[in-house]
Amino acid sequence: MDKLKIVGGHQLDGKLTVSGAKNAALPILAGSLLSSESVNLQNIPQLNDVATMLTLLQSMGVKVLFDEKMNLQLDSSDIDSYCAPYDLVKTMRASILVLGPLLTRFGQAKVSLPGGCAIGARPVNFHVQGLEAMGAKISVENGYINARADKLCGANIDFSRVSVTGTQNIMMAAVLARGKTVIKNAAREPEVIDLANFLNSMGAKITDAGSDQIIIKGVDKLNHSKYKILPDRIEAGTYLVATAITGGKIRLKEVVPEHLTAVILKLEEAGAIVDVGDDWINLDMKAKRPVSVNIETFPYPGFPTDMQAQFCALNTVASGFSSVKETIFENRFQHVNELQRMGADIEIQGNNAMIKGVETITAAPVMATDLRASAGLIIAALVAQGETVIDRIYHIDRGYERIEEKLHQLGAHISRESG
Ligand code: UD1
Is 312 designated active site? Predict the structure, then answer.
């Protein structure tokens, strides 16, 4: 298993181009199943989760081609399987995103239940109930969701809490359904808007994506599309925090600053000087120690749960006390145990991490447990005294493109040990 080795204490300084967003790329790849015509996608990040989604699509008969610029062409004209098997779904929960597209285009789908995962229960009941409201007959047998429908019908779907992939799955099912679907309490994340823009580029009729009520008028078929994936706001935020913790300076390019408003406000509160333009962000920490900031996670436009671990790491060495409250997932503090092993002073009280900033933390062998927890550990290692070895970094390869190369480019002392 690969490991990352990081020698802490080196200020980050430099420029970085942000990659395409994982959480937009995955639903858009699943959404390509909706059309029998070819789909061209640009700015697809090279990540293990993307590779898993492509393997899943290929197992159904989708033809996948890359051109010399790594643009992707997908052809779903000849699908011969409607199944997402356990072996793939267990490695990537986002596989559930093929359920809506398969069911609405082919009238059938069989998708393994994702089951538990490292950050909590993460059920898929909203996806199932939403499709049932549209007329699908769904049974769960032997760990699989079996769904059938002659033709889905538009419906009013009111989520009891905001769900990103739930909104995306129902939106994709609704584009080929008969009549109008209204999704209430819809997720407003930029990745939901990106999926809606992609589907509209193929001829779907979706309005108000980005608000909490999305309206979809069903159409008979979707056509060819060429689409560019939006930049990854979580990758961008991760590098901003990584730079801030080292007291360094960074310019991020090809980013949408407005998607990071909640994150930037917290970085400014922590003492960073941040400037933004149309598609760039400059952050300068002027070699200062960060000031502790309180965090509470919320659905977008609130503070993202996917940035919580990174801010825990920042608060670990900041001056003062902070509380980091997780309201989206019940078990998303595994990074805390590992940070404690590096000398952090953190106490968990329910869904709250109470952090007393310490002047220095020290290197230790640590274990990555999920994608964003791993990012938090890397950030801590950048300032820890000595060499931190992070094990099980396949988690990080799921969601960060060439992370050691990008951090190295900024001046971090980081290397990968293959094993
Ligand atoms: C997506 C993101 C993930 C991010 C999360 C933030 C992708 C691939 N993943 O995950 O990176 O951390 O949004 O919200 O885009 N819930 C239910 N029943 C359901 C679905 C969700 O109870 O059927 C609950 C979940 O347990 C959780 C909350 O709703 O407490 C939000 O989950 P959801 O937004 O669905 O997360 P994901 O879409 O899985």
Answer: no
